[in-house]
Design goal:
Layout (H helix, E strand, L loop, with lengths): L9 E10 L5 E12 L3 E3 L1 H11 L2 H21 L6 E7 H4 L4 H12 L6 E6 L7 H13 L3 E7 L5 H8 L3 E4 L1 H6 L4 H16 L3 E5 L4 H9 L4 E3 L9 H12 L4
Parallel strand pairs: 2-4, 4-5, 5-6, 6-7, 7-8, 8-9
Antiparallel strand pairs: 1-2, 1-9, 2-3
The structure holds ligand C2E and magnesium ion (3 copies).
Length: 252
């Protein structure tokens, strides 16, 4: 993994995020893939935890940030309608004192305005410095960069993070969406999460949406945005470009 960056073994895939009101693609989440020369494609679920343990995550997250912004620049130059690009950052990264400077200088270097970048924050490790984390979110907001709380509901401290960090968006974890239509409890929980977000003036997105029934239910509950295999799997850049071109011709 130490050599993966210099050996060009990392690649970003992108998964569309769809607005349930306009039916438009409003965001693309960058998801990291590692093309290992012998082992083939390794999923981030396998290597990110190791990268976090070894500290390699710092360089990897910086690489992802830079390349997602470079890609965003290319989309803008191609004249794509304004789409946000979402980057996952580990909580470790979020508690670095230089996080804000790294993001700000990456935006400057690539010529991207803050409003076209979003950060997805997940509780991969415990937050040991809530003050610094909150401060980073506030500084990012001041330059237009919004922050989502990823995998919401799965971590024992989800509600306490919500209170301490005041993010801009909640991302309901896919486990809740998967079970949602099987039992009424599942529906009530998702409903409650959507209401919680809206009562706090936050946008809410559901991840792991795999079928039409789920979309219908989420729409009926006024969930703002959706993401999942039902719309598209994460795709390499050429394929995501085709997806966006095709959708642009679809009626709402
Ligand atoms: P995440 O940010 O919650 O991303 C969602 C994961 O769910 C992705 O897995 C995506 O491919 C998958 N997914 C999307 N739609 C569906 C669906 O409809 N059904 C199912 N079953 N799965 C769906 P992926 O790409 O393997 O990423 C796993 C996790 O690894 C991510 O979870 C994120 O926490 C982490 N990760 C990915 N890329 C990066 C990165 O660049 N930096 C960091 N720090 N973490 C990353
Ligand atoms: Mg994410
Ligand atoms: Mg996650
Ligand atoms: Mg997630």
């Amino acid at each position: 993994m130490r050599n993966a960056i210099t050996h060009n073994e990392f690649e970003l895939y992108y998964q569309p995020q769809i607005c349930l009101v306009t039916n438009q693609v409003i965001g693309l989440e960058a998801l990291l893939r590692w093309n290992h020369p012998e082992k083939g494609m390794i999923s981030p679920g396998t290597f990110i935890p190791i990268a976090e343990e070894t500290g390699l995550i710092q360089n990897i997250d910086k690489w992802v940030l830079l390349h997602a912004c470079l890609q965003q620049k290319q989309w803008q130059e191609l004249g794509y309608l304004p789409i946000k690009v979402s980057v996952n950052l580990s909580m470790i990264q979020f508690q670095q004192p230089d996080l804000f400077d790294v993001i700000q200088s990456t935006l400057k270097q690539t010529g991207i305005a803050g409003q076209y970048l979003e950060i997805e924050l997940t509780e991969s490790v415990m937050m040991n410095n809530p003050k610094l984390t909150l401060n980073n979110i506030e500084k990012l907001n001041s330059i237009g960069v919004e922050v989502s709380l990823d995998d919401f509901g799965t971590h024992y401290s989800s509600l306490s993070y919500l209170k301490k960090l005041s993010p801009n968006r909640l991302k309901i974890d896919q486990s809740f969406i998967r079970d949602m239509l099987h039992d009424t409890d599942g529906q009530v929980i998702v409903q409650a999460m959507i209401n919680l977000a809206h009562n706090l003036n936050l946008k809410v997105i559901a991840e792991g949406v795999e079928n039409k029934e789920q979309v219908k239910f989420l729409h009926s509950q006024r969930c703002d945005e959706v993401q999942g295999y039902y719309f598209s799997k994460p795709l390499p850049v050429e394929k995501i470009n085709t997806f966006i071109h095709k959708r642009a011709h679809l009626p709402n």
